[in-house]
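Database export, one record per block. Field names are fixed; values are copied verbatim from the stored entry.
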Amino acid sequence: MFSLFLLTSSLCGFCASFQNLDFDSANTNRLTDICAPNHCFYGSLSDLLPGWQLSNGANVFGPNSPVGYNLELAGLPYDTILGASNPDNRPFEGLYSLALYSAREPPLTGTLTPFSLWQVGAVPSDAKSIHFLNFGFSAVELLINGSPVPLLLDGSFDHTRVHLVNAAADISVYAGQSIELRFTTTDHDLSGLDSISFSDQPVPEPGALALFCVGALLLLWRFRLRSGSY
């Protein structure tokens, strides 16, 4: 029994770590410009998103599949894949930020065809939370082993401008395990990712966070009341 426990508890020592969580490991030396002079660049999935798998609806891209349409690996001074202007000052961190544009057929009114980006890897044994930057006009959904994970966001999205939101989730139950980490777009417009990381710090419970905010407001109200601000 003891030997069996040692075997099962050490299995994830052989699990591969997650790769390219900041999207900065891209190889952009073999891009194909298919629509010069507008510069629409395509490249293989294994070059542009090493370590990751990608699908658009039921269409799964293989490692050598050319990708580029509705996908940006944004780096200054221009967006490497689509060659577009970069008004949002991407990348937000490091060399590149990943931007996904889901499509509707017909545009804006038809059925949403979401993008899914996923990878299988080992969660650090001391991890209590996962953090990432989510930017654009709409949020992404985080799924672990196919199940949605509640996200704690420090902001919200609308369709008036590009927002940059810090997202976090409790993943303590998966510490030391091999999991599928999947991000899925939820709207037709821009959804972006950058700087995915694991932390040994827990995420505050939403209820505790709300109580903290209420307490802070009460203290502020009492302070203003005493100082005669009202």
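Remark 1: The longest strand covers residues 190-199.
Remark 2: The helical segments are 2-9, 45-48, 206-227.
End of record.
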